[in-house]
Amino acid sequence: xxxxxxxxxxxxxxxxxxxxxxxxxxxxxxxxxxxxxxxxxxxxxxxxxxxxxxxxxxxxxxxxxxxxxxxxxxxxxxxxxxxxxxxxxxxxxxxxxxxxxxxxxxxxxxxxxxxxxxxxxxxxxxxxxxxxxxxxxxxxxxxxxxxxxxxxxxxxxxxxxxxxxxxxxxxxxxxxxxxxxxxxxxxxxxxxxxxxxxxxxxxxxxxxxxxxxxxxxxxxxxxxxxxxxxxxxxxxxxxxxxxxxxxxxxxxxxxxx
Length: 257
Known about the structure:
Elements: H1 2-32, H2 41-55, E1 86-88, H3 95-107, H4 117-126, E2 131-136, E3 139-149, E4 168-176, H5 185-198, E5 205-210, H6 215-220, E6 224-233, E7 236-244
Parallel strand pairs: 4-5
Antiparallel strand pairs: 1-2, 2-3, 3-4, 5-7, 6-7
């Protein structure tokens, strides 16, 4: 009985092993049958066509992998490289933006601009260090322009000249973009400008002239009335105001910016 079982197992082993050898031989003969004009890269060509067909599928399109830094969600990533909020001195390249904001702010109220575009360029060329612009994502939203002066009161000359090293800064204009008004930006940039002037060792005070309806705004910022201005523009009259500086470090304020 045992010999019969051994004989059956031997026959089955020979059949299975023989079939595997036959398949291997068939596969080898097929590879050997490839002609020189169609070598093994023909198989790669077939695989390439399959890959192309797969890529053509709308569900298998290539895509760029998008990822966020560790701990930062896509919703919180910054979408720009410019500072969200920046205060800096103005330059000649800012002159047109300055004038557009100024024109809209003053023409609609008084019909006159404190500085025309040529005068804006004039002061930004002579004394850019006495100007300050507030930029949000690279766009000008508010500004102050001043120049040096060396007398107790403003005269007509103060409208066009700059006195280098003068102990007084004449604030010509403060304006805020019309889309950014009623947000406290005028008070914030004026406060920052005055604290900036405190760091200039030769500057002892800031002066300006304004219409009567603006007096409370400047009084709230710390200015005091000197009296009626000697300067008039057409039918418009002004009150002259001053702010003592005396040098010193920045004062702290919870300005929210």
